[in-house]
Amino acid sequence: MHAQTLEARLAELIADEQPCVALTGAGISTESGIPDFRSPEGLWAEFDPLEYGSLEAFRTDPEKVWRFYAPRFAMLADAEANAGHRALAELERRGLVQAVVTQNIDLLHARAGGREVVEVHGSIRTSSCPGCRAAYELAEVLPLIEAGAGAPRCPRCRTVLKPDVVFFGELLPQPAIDRAFELAAAARLLLVVGSALEVYPIAGLPLETLRAGGKLAIINKGPTAFDERAVLRVEASAGEALAAVTRALDARE
Questions:
Q1: Catalytic amino acids?
Q2: What is the rounded CA–CA span in Å between residue 38 and residue 57?
Q3: Given this model, what pLDDT does residue 253 score?
Q4: pTM of this prediction?
Q5: pLDDT score at 48
Q6: Domains in the chain: how many in total?
Q7: Which residue ranges in the chain fall short of pLDDT 50?
Q8: Which residue among 133, 165, 197 closes a domain?
Q9: Any idea what the CATH number is for the domain that residue 9 is in?
Q10: CB 96: neighbour CB atoms within 10 A?
């Protein structure tokens, strides 16, 4: 079946199956130049996540962890939202996407204009001090990274700051998880974009929608764990597919 036909069908699904909730993973941000973590070319293919991305690693040697994170923070801070982020924000503006649940920490949904964004793995928006519990915005942290040769220290107590992203071995933020599962259970359509649905508990969100009688649609490059249970699957980049969806919706009006 022609790809455009698939995207036109997806536009119909989004319009007809309301409310629609989007679940996004690293695949939507690779088009903004942000590498993913889990693909054969991803960051964890080169770096051991337990050595650089775990809570235990941070507690043991925060400076080493920041040597890994510092250049990536700068890259994320400079990244720009792409066509996929903008399309989802536009669908939200039109009332066709109720919310975006994202596994990404890059703030690109918010930068694209998304209003209801649930960040289940935290974000680079803030970093916190494990010593005095002070919190600092990204714009405050970036100069501290530069001044600290990679490891930003709290201006108040000089403790190395921890980015407010979820490390391996760390619990996900409970309010965000509760909201994500609430949205998924109430969704008539869960639209998965750029995620292979491998990381739990978020990979369990499609089950919440399906158990409640909702439907699942997937846009992803490569297979996912739920392909056989999706009513529609589009093998394409997020930006390309979602831009085509918005055009198809325009044609329906």
A1: 121
A2: 19
A3: 64
A4: 0.91
A5: 55
A6: 2
A7: 1-3, 38-45
A8: 165
A9: 3.40.50.1220
A10: 20
